[in-house]
Amino acid sequence: MIAGWEYGRRVNYAKWRFGRLEENSPMGSEHALDQQDHPPSVETAGSAVHEDRAIEQARNQPADRFASDARDQDLDQALKPWLPAPRRRVQLDTLSLLTWPDGVTVESPAFEHFLASVVAPFCARYPTPSTQLLYRRSLTYFFRWWGQARVTDGESDAFTAQLVQRYRTFLTETQGQGTGTRLAARTINTYLASLRAFCTWLKRTGQIPFHPMGEVKGLKIAKRFVRDSLTEAEVTRLMDTFDVTGTDPAEQERQWRDYAMTLLWVSTGTRSIELARAQRRHCAQRDGHPILYLHRKGGDAAEQPVVLAPWVLEALTSYFQRHDAWHHPIVDPSAPFRGLLPEHPLFCWLRGPGKYHSKMNNVAERRGCRALGVGAIQAMMRDHLQEAGLHRLLNPETHSIRPISPHSLRHTAATLALNHGATIRQVQSMLGHADIQTTMIYLHEQDRIVNAAEHHIPNFSRPRSPRV
Question: Which domains does the chain have, with CATH numbers?
């Protein structure tokens, strides 16, 4: 890049070389005198003096002095190599990145084909069906809003940065279906995060020239957990809802299954998806301790272990015995042990053999050992929370409903471990957090409440007699 003073020096020198300075000008007379004083034999020194004087004189000339000169074209041609390259200004806010297809409405079948051609390749990048479903729903919500806004609000057919900004404004002002209230901040951020990931994929694959959500920020949310944790007394109330003393084999198996699952849940802080993925072959022994390898969220295999307490292992063993007595009866005691079935789930449905037809030739499923899904596990836990009086529990002090859900058992495990002396690194390893800052939220919330500054403010209340 040419410095400013050097650029001006070259411009003025070019003007002098092309005769832009008049001969009768002060510089012209000085130039004539200079030629008399310096003969042609000293050409090198004279040319340097001529250049410096021409540059000095050209700087003092008015800008319109050479407006009508006949050699403007020659001057521009001479200055072209020295001029900086012009930059084209592009209004990125209004630059069209995608275009709504002609003749396609939200209600038409062509809209589904449009979504499949645009959204489906992006969602296929993610391995888990739950992640694909989340992105598909979020992006479908955006494209439906865009299609309806074209008709009702006169929105343009171009996908621009301004369109994304108006979509954010729409999310903050709209109301949830059937609720009558505005969308939660976390819901809005989920929609924006899905659209941001979609635009990142478009930019990376070269389908759009720039990222349109660079200036679109999500809502600011405090770093805390939505669900509340249970106290030790509340966990005891929850465990009392399981009756394992029944005589019916099917009911006894169900009670032992739910009892063992709840103990494992509250003792290791697993997620519901990890319970659904767990298999018997993931149980192992390491350094004299029973462990269970979990298939963590976002992982591809069961690789991260959690240690099983003796009472958890005892409950799991009792459940396995009752399950195998129904699903895998021993017809001939003298026959050799068949061993664990391939991909045998840790927690199964109660239906007997022959109820399922496995599409993947899974021997365990053909014998009625079908794994419980995430929905069934969470529904089971909600029923027991409600039976224990913990579902939608009313806080007696604030008269507000505590956010208790099946995921609260995970928070309970972390909170109880910290209360009983576990370090933050140990809790991070148990929960499988990739970032320790996520685990630190438990410690910050606990310290904020227990060691709050509000506890040190004196009591200024005075007894008041009721008004008559």
Answer: 4-82 (no CATH), 92-204 (no CATH), 247-329+341-372 (1.10.443.10)
